[in-house]
Design brief:
Layout: H1 16-45, H2 51-67, E1 80-81, H3 88-100, E2 108-112, E3 117-122, E4 125-131, H4 132-137, H5 140-155, H6 158-180, H7 184-189, H8 193-236, H9 238-251, H10 255-268, E5 271-272, H11 275-284, H12 286-302, H13 314-324, H14 348-359, E6 369-370, H15 373-391, H16 393-396, H17 404-409, H18 412-415, H19 428-449, E7 453-457, E8 460-465, E9 468-470, H20 472-481, H21 486-496, H22 505-514
Parallel strand pairs: 2-4, 5-6
Antiparallel strand pairs: 1-2, 3-4, 7-8, 8-9
Length: 520
């Protein structure tokens, strides 16, 4: 672990002004809302020449003040609770970070399904949530830096201030919601010009203050993030923090893709493959990794600070974190620091299964069998290919492998006959991409029927025979993009022995074999 002693940690001081400022904005938000509600009620209490204006003002005042009534917030479990006794390595890391910052270890530590980590306090009970994707993408050293960042929010008192800001925001949201759905009485009196004018004025005032409140509190939040980065650099090293921040921002767009394309098909087949390990393989797949690197670099160049952002741009966080290394010496990593963070969680299989059942309650009635990605992924893909080609066998039957150079140049006639996913309206380009995927799957199925072996892991799959490896879906897309010429395609498919095969020949042959003969 980073060799950092307690005397290296800078004292808790720098954000006191901003904490007081945020608390002032919270108090002011309640005071301003109460004052506005009372001002509306005063139209009835102190009299007005317009009866409808008095009634409208009283209804508006009661609506605003009623929205301020205290609500008891119920904490809901965000994921799977991790047991310290079953995960000693993870909680040893938490103990080390807590001791360096002289803070208490969180009471409850949860495993959650998103690429994020956060902390909070609920009635003096400390909560830490750790995203499962982080365990699969971060090294131990990087993960330690992210945890130190979260502990720094305890250290700076952010988690004690946060609930007050959160409640104030919720109160203002409830007020807006109440005004957007006016009571029947208010709807009636609002037909009169003076009441309608009053209503618009109230909404305008609340809207203006809401924007001011958000700008101020989010400014404080960005200051807190910078401070947490500074402390994390002192605890775990600025390099580990910078690398960790880059990874977290890089993997965020892939989580839903991983879930839909990798986890769900395996789960529907009745299996659980290691989720964190699978995510590590998924984001490391060459095509996905390169795309994520490009997207990250683009965000670093183009991302800007917006007034309502809770976090500073990654570029600014990295620039500041790189300055901290001059004050805090970087030491060599422990031998295990380069391992992936999921190695810290000994009870990961049980936690992942619980998380799956939590996310998809319907799966609780079907016991999932744990299997490696190598053993289950290829089987699932092969089954998916067979079903996909069988679904569109009639459409694919007239197309031979040799016809694909022309078919890929104009896939619209096939794409138009593939239904859009339920609840979605795809663009022409998206439909064409799905047609190309179908062509690639069909070529892959033809190769499998010709003796090729399917090899797959998250994010990548290929076919292998006699030491040769091909990726049919990738090849079809390269053919459509002009990276493979029609002549080269014909030559390659001839070498593979499938040039004159129909894209659906195997499926139609199977159907014909199974169909009973009819008497003439």
């Amino acid at each position: 672990m980073q060799a950092t002693s307690q005397d290296q940690i800078s004292p808790r001081n720098s954000l006191r002004f901003w904490a007081v400022f945020a608390l002032f904005m919270v108090v002011t938000s309640y005071a301003a809302t109460i004052a506005l509600g009372l001002a509306c009620l005063s139209l009835l209490l102190f009299g007005t020449e317009s009866l409808f204006l008095a009634i409208g003002g009283s209804v508006l005042g009661v609506t605003i003040l009623w929205s301020l009534r205290p609500r008891r917030e119920q904490f809901r479990s965000p994921g799977v609770l991790l047991d310290p006794a079953r995960n000693p390595r993870l909680f040893a890391e938490l103990d080390r970070i807590a001791s360096l910052l002289e803070e208490q270890v969180p009471t409850d530590v949860y495993l959650i399904p998103v690429a994020n980590a956060w902390v909070t306090e609920v009635r003096s009970k400390r909560i830490l949530a750790i995203g499962l994707p982080l365990l699969g993408a971060l090294t131990v050293a990087q993960f330690r830096a992210i945890l130190a960042h979260e502990f720094a929010h305890y250290y700076g008192g952010d988690t004690r201030l946060g609930p007050w800001v959160y409640k104030a925001r919720n109160t203002m949201v409830r007020t807006f919601q109440s005004l957007r759905e006016p009571s029947p009485l208010l709807q009636v009196v609002a037909r009169f010009a003076l009441v309608a004018l009053l209503y618009q004025l109230v909404v305008l005032i609340l809207s203006g203050y809401w924007k001011l409140f958000l700008r101020c509190t989010q400014l404080v939040s960005r200051k807190q993030e910078f401070r947490a980065d500074e402390l994390a650099s002192q605890v775990a090293g600025s390099k580990a923090l910078i690398d960790g921040l880059r990874v977290v921002n890089k993997i965020d767009p892939t989580v839903q893709m991983y879930w839909n394309n990798e986890v769900v098909p395996v789960m529907n087949a009745g299996f659980h493959a290691p989720l964190a390990e699978g995510f590590a393989l998924f984001v490391a797949a060459p095509g996905i990794s390169a795309a994520l690197d490009d997207l990250l670099e683009k965000n670093l160049r183009e991302e800007k600070t917006h007034a309502y952002d809770s976090h500073p741009p990654l570029r600014e966080r990295i620039a500041r974190a790189s300055e901290y290394s001059a004050r805090v010496g970087e030491s060599s990593q422990d031998s295990g620091d380069s391992a992936l963070a999921f190695t810290l969680v000994e009870d990961l299989e049980r936690a992942e299964l619980e998380l799956l059942y939590l996310l998809v309650p319907s799966q609780q009635s079907q016991k999932l069998h744990t299997a490696s990605w190598e053993s289950v992924k290829a089987t699932v893909i092969a089954d998916t290919w067979r079903k996909r080609v069988a679904q569109f066998a009639t459409l694919l039957q007239p197309i031979q492998v040799s016809d694909l150079p022309n078919a890929c140049q104009n896939p619209t006639w096939v794409a138009s006959q593939i239904p859009d996913p339920p609840g979605m309206l795809l663009t022409r380009q998206q439909r064409n991409q799905r047609a190309l995927d179908l062509f690639g799957v069909a070529v892959g199925q033809v190769l499998v029927e010709n003796g090729w072996k399917l090899i797959a892991q998250p994010g990548v799959f290929s076919l292998e025979r006699d030491g040769r490896i091909v990726q049919p879906v990738v090849m079809v897309h390269e053919l459509a993009a002009g990276k493979i010429t029609p002549e080269a395609w014909v030559q390659q498919m001839a070498e593979l022995g499938v040039l004159n095969r129909s894209l659906a020949a195997g499926n139609l042959a199977a159907e014909k074999k199974q169909s009973p003969k009819t008497a003439s």
